[in-house]
Backbone:
């Protein structure tokens, strides 16, 4: 059975996701204004909000499908990416920063140009 | 010359059954307003019956291959980020390899919970950069609802299935 201490994890999740996303953005030389999209793991709207603020990226550029599909763990990021690609929102050449956090604890980020 | 990786196609798949926040009101002490305001979630998908993680993954894979314009037999490797594997052996990746008709390629599961897809992309990127592989299918897939405690109002509302 899946068990979780959500309240205790919240702060660690925000810090770990924001720090690693920042590190990945720096590694790719992405300044806040260079980032077209942020694709965060879809675990909780408040975590996503906090991570976007830390990266100085407005919520309109944050990819979201949590309202429709909730937390699908490892599937949140690829499904959100695919959805936005097929809707024509994410285009070739867009700079993207993606960050995840999960049980373990595990976390990681990646920056790429689509 | 430096070698770089590129995403040449994407795909996703969700099971058809939708479970709304309201559906939970029937069997646990919760409501739509509480779930929405605390999580941002309105609905989630639920895999039913004989649908396993590898089935979700294979459907998503077919769409990604189609967008990329390549055949399953062109793949050098398959990495599935998941912690809800059909069985620990064979791996979900090996089952996907069979279901999509991929040829001889490496296939393994990567368990890093919600970070599974990011870890998988980083591993695939490293393998491509070192020349070990050219085309890798990276999947994040979960059948989470099969392992939920439906009496725990703190967790069962949070998760869905998809790939």
Residues:
């Amino acid at each position: 059975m899946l068990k979780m201490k959500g309240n205790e994890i919240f702060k660690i999740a925000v810090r770990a996701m924001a720090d690693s996303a920042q590190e990945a953005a720096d590694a790719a030389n992405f300044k806040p204004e260079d980032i077209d999209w942020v694709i965060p793991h879809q675990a909780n709207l408040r975590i996503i909000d906090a991570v976007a603020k830390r990266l100085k990226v407005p919520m309109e550029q944050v990819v979201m499908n949590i309202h429709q599909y909730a937390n699908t763990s490892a599937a949140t990021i690829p499904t959100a990416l695919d959805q936005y690609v097929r809707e024509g929102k994410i285009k070739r050449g867009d700079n993207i920063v993606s960050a995840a956090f999960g049980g373990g604890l595990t976390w990681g980020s990646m920056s790429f140009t689509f | 010359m430096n070698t770089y990786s590129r995403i040449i196609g994407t795909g996703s798949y969700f099971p058809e059954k939708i479970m709304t926040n309201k559906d939970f009101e029937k069997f646990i002490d919760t409501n739509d307003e509480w779930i929405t305001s605390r999580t941002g979630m309105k609905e989630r998908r639920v895999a039913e019956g004989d649908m396993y993680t590898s089935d979700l993954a294979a459907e998503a894979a077919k769409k990604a291959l189609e967008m990329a314009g390549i055949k399953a037999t062109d793949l050098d490797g398959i990495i599935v980020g998941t912690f809800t594997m059909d069985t620990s052996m064979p791996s979900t990746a090996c089952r996907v390899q069979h279901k999509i008709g991929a040829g001889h390629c490496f296939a393994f599961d990567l368990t890093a919970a919600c970070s599974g897809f990011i870890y998988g992309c980083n591993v695939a990127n490293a393998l491509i950069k070192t020349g070990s592989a050219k085309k890798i299918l990276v999947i994040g897939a979960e059948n989470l609802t099969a392992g939920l405690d439906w009496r725990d109002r703190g967790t069962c509302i949070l998760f869905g299935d998809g790939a």
Observations:
- The mean pLDDT of chain A is 95.
- The beta strands of chain A are 37-40, 95-102, 106-113.
- Chain A has four helices and three strands.
